Amino acid sequence: MNELEITVLVDDRSIDEVKLKPTHGISLYIETMGHYILFDTGPNPDILRNNSESLDIDLSLLDVVIVSHVHTPHTGGIPFIGWVAPSTKTYIPYAAGPYFEQIVMKNGLVPIEVIDWIKILPRVYISKPYYGPPWEHFLIIDSDRGLIIFSGCMHPNYKEVLSSIYEYFSKDIYTIIGGFHLVSAPERFIKSIADYLSSVSTYVVPLHCSGVKFIEYMVMKYPEKLIKAMAGSIIKL
């Protein structure tokens, strides 16, 4: 498998707050094996447009869009995708409901509800849905080095999700990237999650709702596991 490249388009933090607007949300542009994937869309179309254009990312090339769950920080950029890449297959969460499906269709995209494990491209999968609330699914890329798992917020139980993914592939986890929903979590819980993620994965890339305390603990305890990233970062795996 060729090198995989991830560009952070939208995040709560930014490498350049003038050029790339930081905001509460997440959107990741993934290039792998000649395919172009968008994982979540950020909270609104203007920020997605500004940041993607500032980074010279052409979203008209997208093969697929994955919406991890229906919260606005992940879905708000859909109108911009519909404008630049109409008719793109857009994988939406189980039980997202007819209203959200209509939003996707109204913006010229093709909604596909994820009800179970699905292979969407060579070596690229979406997990079955897990209940948080809300229902959330995860993008997995089966790389030569191990599984690369993309998380919107990780609302469901961490161990249930990661154990299930490991069992499905019978393969070690190489990298976990995305939001971990820990901004307001108690310090003890933050530490326990950092310990757990570091024990099951070679690298951890916290974004969006993972929080400063989580990153600080990773810097102190697991610096060799941590990959720091924010809007504008490019990660090669």
Note down, in words, how this protein is organized:
This protein is 28% helix and 28% strand. It has 237 residues and is α/β, with parallel strands linked by helices. It has one domain: Ribonuclease Z/Hydroxyacylglutathione hydrolase-like (Metallo-beta-lactamase, Chain A, 4-Layer Sandwich). It is globular.
Secondary-structure element order, N to C: EEEHEHHEHEEEEEEEHEHEHE
Low-pLDDT ranges = none
Residue fraction in strands: 25-35%
What is Rg? 16 Å
Secondary structure category: alpha/beta
Q: According to CATH, what is the topology?
A: Metallo-beta-lactamase, Chain A
> What count of structural domains?
1
CATH architectural arrangement: 4-Layer Sandwich
Q: CATH superfamily membership, which one? A: Ribonuclease Z/Hydroxyacylglutathione hydrolase-like
Please state the average pLDDT score: 97
Which outline best applies? globular
Tally of DSSP β-strands: 15
CATH class: Alpha Beta
Helix content: 25-40%
Strand order, largest beta sheet: 6-5-4-3-2-1-15
Q: Major beta sheet, specifics? A: 7 strands, mixed
Please give the count of helices. 7
How far is the N terminus from the C terminus?
A: 11 Å
List keywords for this structure.
28% helix; Metallo-beta-lactamase, Chain A; 7-stranded mixed beta sheet; alpha/beta; 6-stranded mixed beta sheet; 237 residues
